[in-house]
Amino acid sequence: MPIIPLPSGHLAWRRYTPRAVLLRWFGWLLGVLLVVQCWEIMNADTIWEFVYDAPTQAGDLLGRMWPPRWSVLEKLWWPLWDTLNMATLGTALGVVLGVPVAFLAARTTTPSLAIARPIALLIIVSSRSINSLIWALLLVTVMGPGVLAGIIAIALRSIGFIGKLLYEALEETDPKQIEAIAATGASGPQRIAYGFVPQIMPTFAGISVYRWDINIRESTVLGLVGAGGIGLQLNASVSRLAWPEVTVMFIAILCTVAVSEWVSARVRAAII
Amino acid sequence: MSATATGRRWRPPPFIANPWLRLALYGGVALYLALALGTLQVNWGRVAEGLVRGWAFIAAFGNPDFTSRWAEIQEGMIESLTMTVVSTVLGVALSLPVGLGAARNLAPLPVYLVCRFIIAASRSFPEIIVAILFVKMFGFGPLAGMVTLAFATIGFMAKLLAEDLEDIDEAQVEAIRATGASWPQMMVYAVQPQVLPRFIGLSVYRLDINFRESAVIGIVGAGGIGATLNTSFDRYEFGTSAAILILIIAIVMAAEYSSGIIRKRLQ
Question: How far is CA B229 from CA A145, B69, B188, in A?
Answer without folding.
Answer: 18, 11, 45
